[in-house]
């Protein structure tokens, strides 16, 4: 599970192959990059505005507003993901703007990346439309977090999910099913993955309002800055 702290995510167990879509040279020349300077070291993420434009702009606005400066990685699970962007050193949740629209399915349909090692995705509650500022970095290939692409047709002639086959299902029922939304991937780590792995490996326990998965020594984001 991925949590947006205070609320657990409803994770879909999606049987899907994790395929990473590598950015083209043209995109690599124009894609924005953000540097995270943390107490564990620095890493840089590259963003994909051509795949998830609203998500990327939302994230960049938080960067411009210095929202991430002084926040911590408050949830770390080895072989899964590291999550941050929501809480300060005193475990106080920072205020956010209204949620950004979920773009996960549209991003995949545009050839965007899946939830594989090194990719950057939005955290949210069990409401697919609840993502604000918190993000996570996959440190494992997490195909079960991927959005489900709905086949064409209305009704959809045939749809298979979790081993069951559904026939002649109204399209709206599938498009709006919360368990099929997955998580929006909108970037990837392009340098400093060793730092991300270092964060992944820290001892964790309880702290503040959280019972588990909090680094025992806080991992602080000193700054997040647009470098390209």
Account of the 3D structure:
The protein is of the alpha+beta class and 228 residues long. The chain has a single domain (3-147, 182-226), classed as Cyclophilin-like (Cyclophilin, Beta Barrel). It contains 5 helices and 14 strands. The strands form 4 sheets. It has an 8-stranded antiparallel β-barrel with strand order 3-4-11-7-8-6-5-14. It has a two-stranded antiparallel ribbon with strand order 1-2. The longest helix has 12 residues, at 53-64. The chain is globular. Residues 6-27 have low confidence and may be disordered.
Furnish the topology, listing elements before pairings.
Blueprint: E1 3-4, E2 7-8, H1 25-30, E3 33-38, E4 41-47, H2 53-64, E5 71-77, E6 81-88, H3 104-109, E7 119-122, E8 135-138, E9 156-161, E10 164-169, H4 171-175, E11 185-191, H5 193-200, E12 204-207, E13 210-215, E14 220-226
Antiparallel strand pairs: 1-2, 3-4, 3-14, 4-11, 5-6, 5-14, 6-8, 7-8, 7-11, 9-10, 12-13
């Amino acid at each position: 599970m991925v949590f947006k702290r205070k609320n657990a995510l409803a994770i879909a167990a999606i049987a899907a192959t994790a395929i990473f879509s590598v950015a083209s040279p043209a995109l690599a020349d124009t894609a924005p990059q953000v540097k995270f300077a943390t107490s564990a070291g620095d890493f840089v993420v590259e963003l994909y505005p051509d795949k998830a434009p609203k998500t990327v702009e939302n994230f960049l606005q938080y960067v411009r507003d210095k929202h991430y400066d002084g926040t911590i990685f408050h949830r770390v699970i080895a072989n899964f993901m590291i999550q941050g962007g929501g809480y300060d050193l005193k475990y106080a949740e920072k205020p956010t703007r209204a949620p950004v629209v979920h773009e996960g399915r549209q991003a995949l349909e545009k050839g965007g990346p899946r939830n594989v090692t090194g990719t950057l995705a939005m955290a949210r509650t069990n409401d697919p439309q609840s993502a604000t500022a918190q993000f996570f970095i996959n440190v494992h290939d997490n195909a079960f977090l991927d959005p489900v692409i709905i086949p064409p047709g209305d009704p959809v002639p045939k749809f298979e999910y979790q081993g069951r086959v559904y026939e002649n299902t109204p399209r709206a029922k599938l498009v709006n099913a919360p368990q099929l939304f997955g998580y929006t991937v909108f970037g990837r780590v392009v340098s400093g993955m060793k730092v991300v792995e270092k964060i992944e490996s820290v001892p964790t326990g309880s702290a503040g309002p959280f019972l588990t998965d909090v680094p025992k020594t806080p991992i602080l984001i000193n700054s997040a800055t647009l470098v390209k």
